[in-house]
Write a structure and sequence with these properties.
Layout (H helix, E strand, L loop, with lengths): L1 E5 L2 E5 L5 H7 L23 E4 L6 E4 L10 E3 L3 H17 L4 H9 L19 H9 L6 E3 L6 E3 L14 H5 L27 H5 L22
Parallel strand pairs: 1-5
Antiparallel strand pairs: 1-2, 3-4, 3-5, 6-7
Helix pairs in contact: 2-3
Bound molecules: FE2/S2 (inorganic) cluster.
The site of FE2/S2 (inorganic) cluster has 12 residues, from loops.
Length: 227
């Protein structure tokens, strides 16, 4: 067992527990984005940063990947932590300004303006889609390609994947692909092709799985074999 101090509270937990789990155990809320209970932690978004160590030698680490350590001192809501989270979410909103999840996070964290140039992209490289495809759907149809600013998510060799079952899990978990189908009489223009599917995705998944890309192309209906 390992004993550490989080926000002046001592807690003893099993070795291997992450700081995020330790905070959750104490009822301390830490915002997350690329973390999901059912998937391995990846540490991509850094939104869960916490400050560890004693003054003046403290540093920021991602709570979802950092394991508890004996005697560790952790601060989850210090000024430095709050500023870092605000900056991170501001950067992410500048990449995908239409994401409702990001907008909500920005509001929660008190971000009132985005000072960076907006790019309107559809991916923030959180890796949730890659992990759910591999770890939950046992498929591995998509993965990361290239490095640095060219990094992106794609199928092997950018070709149609033979192993993709168009299950929609990647879309379901994505915090940025927000423009999902809204049903037969949506308030905004949606193609409605999913309604021609039998059984409909809503019946199969208990949820409407498709989304609309910015060019008005439906991501799921067009791929469905029985359309
Ligand atoms: S939630 Fe921890 S790095 Fe994204």
């Amino acid at each position: 067992m390992v004993t550490l101090r989080i926000n002046e509270l001592d807690v003893t937990l099993e070795e291997g527990t992450t700081l995020l789990e330790a905070a959750q155990f104490l009822g301390i809320e830490i915002p997350t984005l690329c973390y999901d209970d059912g998937l391995s932690p990846y540490g991509a978004c850094r939104l869960c940063v916490v400050e560890i160590g004693k003054e003046p030698k403290t540093r920021l680490v991602s709570a979802c990947t950092y394991p508890v350590e004996e005697g560790l001192v952790v601060r989850t809501h210090s000024t430095r932590v709050l500023q870092a989270r605000k900056m991170l979410v501001e950067l992410m909103v500048s990449i995908a300004p239409r994401s409702k999840t990001l907008q909500d996070l920005a509001a929660q964290l008190g971000v009132q303006q985005v000072r960076f140039e907006t790019r309107d992209e559809e991916c923030i490289l959180c890796g949730l889609c890659v992990r759910i495809c591999k770890e939950q759907m046992q498929s591995g149809a998509i993965g990361f390609a290239e490095r640095g600013y060219r990094r992106r998510i794609t199928t092997p060799f950018d070709r149609k994947s033979e192993i993709c079952r168009t299950c929609g899990a990647c879309i379901y978990i994505c915090p940025v692909c927000q423009l999902r189908c809204q049903g037969p009489k949506p308030p905004t223009a949606i193609c409605g092709s999913c309604l021609q599917l039998s059984p409909s995705c809503a019946e199969v998944y208990d949820d409407l799985m498709c989304y609309m890309g910015p060019a008005g192309v439906c991501g799921t209906c067009v791929k469905a074999p029985n359309k």
